[in-house]
Amino acid sequence: MPSIVLLGSTGSIGVNTLIIAERYNLKIEALVAGRNIDLLNQQIAQCSPKYIAIANEADRAKINHPHVFCGAEGILELLELTSSPTIVNALVGYAGLAPTLKAIELGRKVALANKESLVVAGAFIDMSKIVPIDSEHFGLWYLMGERPFSKLYVTASGGAFRDWKVEEMQKATFSQALKHPNWSMGAKITIDSATMTNKLFELLEAKWLFGTSNIDAVIEKKSIIHALTEFKDGSTTAHFAGVDMKLPIAFALRGKVEEEILPPIDLLKMGAVEFLPITSERYPIWEIKEHILNNPHLGVVVNAANEEAITKFEQGQCDFFGMSKMVLDAYAKFDTIKAQNIAEIIEIDREVRAYVQ
To answer: What is the pTM of this model?
Structure first.
């Protein structure tokens, strides 16, 4: 029976991956999770993995399994012991980079939902080993085929404050930023959606995956159109699909899908579709969009500064727009750096975090 390793099993993508794995009779060789121990124990009972890794050593005794690894090093040890041809990386943040690199070093295919891997170190990652399971990049891949394209578009929901006045956004709290209008996701990605950092990251990912800087994003509030491709013949096609990651996951795990994974879109129920611009007044991070697409090595700076800024916002040490100010400040400060290898990426990440702190 074919098997997979699942990193980030208790998040929404992890949960959907297990649903697809069960549907197609894929064995789960290993599970990696963070702090949701109750759900992890349910998953262990459901799919009997050979190995487990968790974030904190202190939680080891709570895990109903004899082979438990802990921390960042534990994940890498676990990967070395596994033999599954596919690693699903749905970890959140910079923590997902080292496992992506290890999986590629071991010759595995990586079904990648961890944006930060490509944002931080796209120049050092073998794209032939990567299959994206973001709905936007899956949509682009689905549309493109072999035809020559001229421009790629991804769409954004606009985040928690898309309908707020800009003055009100200044006073927005961390808990308010977590109220996404379209779906429920983890805290970091929901905050990144509110600041539009998430979409900036997706443009960088698309650059590495598809080899072009001619990429843009627009707001589509219903989150029914995920991507558009403008072809050299002047035509543009759009990818319509429900807000559910099971379709990209199924393609990533199986290569092809020939049965209904999602119910088709009801066009009459959907009604009108509207595209809106992303403005730097509401989303200050958008100021650097063109520059970073032409200087993608600076992704490591944006990611490190952003992760530290989110922590400060959560702790009440800055306001909502303060996060973007910190990131833009770090971006200006470190604009001349360019890593030549992964060791330098790690060092730059450390320096940027120290500066923002």
So the answer is: 0.92
